[in-house]
Structure formats: structure tokens, C-alpha cells
Amino acid sequence: MSNPDSADLAAARIGAIRQAAEQGDAQAQYELGHITARGEGVTRDKIEGARWLRKAGEQGHVDAQFLLAGLYLMGDGVAQSAPEGVEWLEKAASKGHADAQYLLGLMREDGDGCDIDPTDAARWYGQAANQDHAGAQYRLAQMKEHGVGCEINLTEAFKWYRRAALQDYPDAREDLLELCRAHPDLPLPVSELLDGKGRS
User: Fold this and answer.
1) Domains 1-94 and 96-200 belong to one CATH topology
2) Stretch 177-198: mean pLDDT, rounded?
3) pTM of the model
4) Are 86 and 107 in contact (CB under 8 A)?
5) Any idea which architecture 96-200 has in CATH?
6) Is residue 161 classed as helix, strand or coil in its secondary structure?
7) Taking each helix axis from N to C terminus, what angle separates 98-110 and 62-74, rounded to the nearest 10 degrees?
8) Is the pLDDT of residue 29 over 90?
9) Measured distance CA(126)–CA(103) in Å, rounded
């Protein structure tokens, strides 16, 4: 007797996910929403995908909340709504989702879909930066250097530029070197900035 082929196995897996989702399992709802929105093994249906992601998000599933935020911000499978997108981003960010924290920081800094609030932007960047999000580390360093949304703190700017540079974030190394050339009193010589042995 032959084993079921891969298509049969995939169909069985999707069937099991759907059954669990219909029974209220948040992880299954997230998975079903994700594969339905992308058309992975099922007919692509962005509206149905968004519906399942919302069910998972309403149960506190952080990855579903983040994906749902993106759908609302782009109007993909749902009516575009920046306020609702921001609301879902805040839910995910408050649960520690680093990408949500970073994106929320960008939106608060630039006023993209919400009011400009540099102080709140710096707060979200800080939370993501502490989770080693290189983009957040770089943006936080810029804010610390120039006093946007926070007081100028060149030592902190140095630290965050360096941590972003150690992750090869674009422009971080150049900005770090420029900062040190402009402020030779900063804690480490330029030659030690990127060797991984100095202070983090």
C-alpha cells in the first residue's frame, strides 16, 4: 500500500488546521489566516485570510496582530484604515513584538497614518532596540544624537550606533565614526569601535 502523496498530506494538514481554527484555537486561526491570505495550499482569499487573522488577533495572538496591522495599513483584504492599523500595531508592540515596536516608532516619528509624536517614537525605538532590532538601534541613536523626542545624550547615541553597526546596519558605521570624530571625548577610540571588544 503506497503512502499518501505530498498533496494529500498537505490537504490533511490544512484540514486539521481548519478544524482547530473553527474550534477557537488561536494558533490555528493565525496559520489558517496566513496561508489563506497567501494562497499556500488553498485558494487565495485575502478577505477570508484577514477574517481568520482577526479572530486570532482578538485572542491576543501577537503575530496575527502584527500581520493584521499591515493589512489595515495597506488595505489588503480589508478596507484601508490607518487608525485601525495603528491600533493593532500597538497591541502587538505592547506584547513585545520588536518589528511592531519599530514600525510604530517610524510612524510616530514621521506622522505616517498617525499624529507625530517624537517622544513616543523614541520610546518604541528603545523597546525594540533592547531586543537587538538593528533598525530601531540606528533610529534611536539618531534621536539621542540630535535630541529629537529625548534629551541629547551622545554616550547613548554612541552605544546604539555601535550596536547597529555591529549588525551591519546601513550607514550606522559611517555615522558612528562621524560622531566620534566630532566628539573625541566619547568613551572609545575609533580603532576599537567595531571589534566587538569594547563596551556595548
Assistant:
1) yes
2) 68
3) 0.87
4) yes
5) Alpha Horseshoe (1.25)
6) helix
7) 30
8) yes
9) 12
Which single residue is written with the C-alpha cell 484540514? 15
Exposure b/e, 106-120, CB count within 10 A at least 16 = b? ebbbeeebbeebbeb
Q: How far is Cα 193 from Cα 163, in angstroms, rounded to an integer?
A: 10
DSSP alpha helix (H) spans, the chain: 6-22, 26-38, 46-58, 62-74, 82-94, 98-110, 118-129, 134-146, 154-166, 172-182
Decide: 73 and 85 in contact? Cβ < 8 Å.
Answer: yes
Domain 1-94 indexed as CATH 3.20.20.330 = no
Check: CB of residue 144 under 8 Å from CB of residue 117: no
Domains of the chain, residue spans: 1-94, 96-200
Segment among 23-37, 131-145, 169-183, 185-199 with least mean pLDDT: 185-199
